[in-house]
C-alpha cells in the first residue's frame, strides 16, 4: 500500500495552450499514463497482454480531482509520484503529486475501478472488485 | 448568474481508448471548450480578439473535479450544460453537466481565474479579479 | 464515388499551441473524425454497433498527408469536405479539404484499410478488402 | 546537416483507440515533440526562453506526411530518429523514423517554417528564413 512509483514526462510545445502553459486536461492524461506505469512497475502486464482469466480491459475512472498550484510550460521536465492510497470493495484511490524539481505543480486524486466486458453484453463494461492477484502486490 | 449554455459534441473514434469508452481527460477537454462557448454565447470575444485593455489571455484552472457516472463511446452525441455557480474575489466556479439524451454521464466542476501576463515578467502569468465587464453579463 | 460529406468543427482554445494557432496533429484528428462521419452519413453504423459479420474494428491508416496553407485559431469555425477518391484492392483513399468560410486552410489525403482482429491471434489486426456492402454505398 | 537526435516515448493506454493501436495523429504529436527535442539537443532554447531578437514563436508546418508500416500499442517503447534533411530559403525539411526495437513503424516527413508575430498585426504570423544562428548549428 505504501509503494510509490515516479514517472517522468517532458512537457511538449503541443501540450501547451495559447496562454503558453500546459493545457490542463494533459495533466490528467499524464496521471492516467502514470497509473499504468505504477502497475507495470509492480509487475502487472499491460491489460491486452495479460492472460489472467479475469478479462480486465482497463481501470476506468469513477472520480477525478486535481488542484493546480503552479503552471508548467514546454521544455519543463516533470515527475509524477503515484501511489494507491486506498483499496475499497469495488474501487481504489490513486494519488498523484506532480513536481518540477522540488516545486509541487499539481496534486491529483483518481478513483478507479477494474473493468471487464459484460459477459452477456460485450458492448457494456462492468466493474470488478480489485483482483487479489494485483492487490497483494502492494501489501 | 443563472445563465446556462449548452454545447454539443460528437464523440469521435479517436476520443475513445482500448476499453472502447471515452478516454477520461477528453471530458475535461470538452468542459474547457464548453467554458469558452459559455462566455462566447454571452458576448465575450475569444481572448485573442478582445481589446478590452485588461490583457486577459485565458482562464486557467485552479481546481478541477469530475464524477464519471455512465461511460460514452464513439458515435454518441453529448451535450454539456455549463453555468457559473459562484463568483469569488479572485476566482470563479463553473459547473458542467454532461448528458447523452436524458442520461447524466458526467458532473464536473472547475475553479478558474482570469489571467494575464505579469507586467514585469512576461514569462509569468498572474490572476486578476473577474473583470466587472464580464461578470455583469451574468447578473 | 462522387459522394462528399461536410463535417463542421469549432476550434477550441486547447486545440491551439503557444503560437496561438491550431497544433497541427489536431487537423489529422479532425480528418479522422470526418472520415467516420462520412461513413455514418452514408448509413454505415459505428464499428462497435455493426453486426455485419466482417469483424471490422476500424479503418487504420497506411499513409497520411496534409498541406497546411492558412492557419486557424480558437473561435474559428471550420468545415471539412470529405470524399473517397479511390477504391483499391486492399485500401482506399480519402480526400479532405478544410475551409474557414471560402478560405482553404488544409488539404489532406489519407490512405486507409478496413481492419479486423486476426482470427488466429487477437492481439494482431489484419487488413480486409473494402467490404462490398460498404463500397457499393458510394457507387 | 547530418546530425540526428533520438527521442524515446512510451505509448500510453490513452494514446490508443478502440482498435487497440495508436490513434494515428499521436504519431504526428510525437514527431512534433521530437522536432523540438532535436533543436534542444543542439543547444537551441525553447522558443519562449530564447532572447535572440528574432521573435520566433514556433516552427509551424507547411506540409506533413507519414507512412504507417507497423502499428504500435500501449506498453510499447518507441524511438524517433529525427534529422533535418534539407534547408530551404524559407523552410526546412525534417525526417523522422519511428522504431520499436529494430522494427520501423512509421516514416515521417515535415516541412516547417520559422515563424514570428507579424510586426504590424500581432494576430498574424509570418515565416522567416531559417535563422543563420540556428542553421549553422547543424553544419
Spatial strand arrangement across the major sheet of chain A: 1-4-5-6-3
Query: Which term fits the overall shape of chain A?
Result: elongated
State the largest interface: A-B, 28 and 28 residues
Percent of residues in helices of chain A comes to: 10-25%
Our estimate of the beta-strand percent of chain A is 35-45%
Question: What is the average per-residue confidence, as pLDDT of chain A, rounded to a whole number?
Answer: 93
Runs of chain A in which pLDDT lies below 50 for 5 or more consecutive residues are none
Q: How would you classify the quaternary structure?
A: homotetramer
The largest sheet of chain A, given as strand count, sense and whether it forms a barrel, is: 5 strands, antiparallel
- C-alpha-based Rg of chain A, rounded: 16 Å
Number of strands of chain A: 8
What is the tally of helical segments of chain A?
Answer: 2
Structural class of chain A: alpha+beta
Distance between the termini of chain A: 5 Å
What is the ordering of alpha helices and beta strands of chain A? EHEEEEEEEH
Describe this entry's structure for a reader.
The structure is a homotetramer of 139-residue chains. Chain A is 15% helix and 44% strand. By secondary structure, chain A is of the alpha+beta class. The first copy, chain A, is elongated. In chain A, 44% of the residues are buried. The interface between C and D is medium-sized, with 28 and 28 residues.
